[in-house]
Design brief:
163 residues; 8 helices; single chain; mainly alpha; two-stranded antiparallel ribbon
Length: 163
Amino acid sequence: MIEHCLFFGRAISVAAPAGIVIWLFANLNINGVSILNYIANFLNPFASLMGLDGYILAAFILALPANEIVLPIILMSYMSGSNLVQIEDLANISNILISNGWTILTAINVMLFSLMHFPCSTTLISIKKETGSWKWAILSFIIPTVCGILICMITTGIYNLIV
């Protein structure tokens, strides 16, 4: 029971500041453009190699504290909103994604990268605590992330050869 309380304590200490950062990135503008848009535009060339876009890659990065907020961050970014969104109707979600350029390739690569990317920060902190070394936490971040990037790039390459 004590271990669960410590885990949730670490989760709160990491997730709360992350929520503030996400809100600031979405709401602070430079020359009328949000910081989130600047980040997405910067990431877009690399994300394209993975069959994604800059907003999707930014969402994965910003969701490091809690991986379950990737889709809400993507939707918030596409809707140019300043808040995380919760849309109950799947048709609405589908329309938002398709109107922002999602294809079957995008959907496949989002699923693949969701399966093969870094664990959340709370898990990384737990790995460090359990092993007593940052080495294992860093490897736990790097290995699946590199694998996810490579798998998405390979999938994108095969898809582009076929289509």
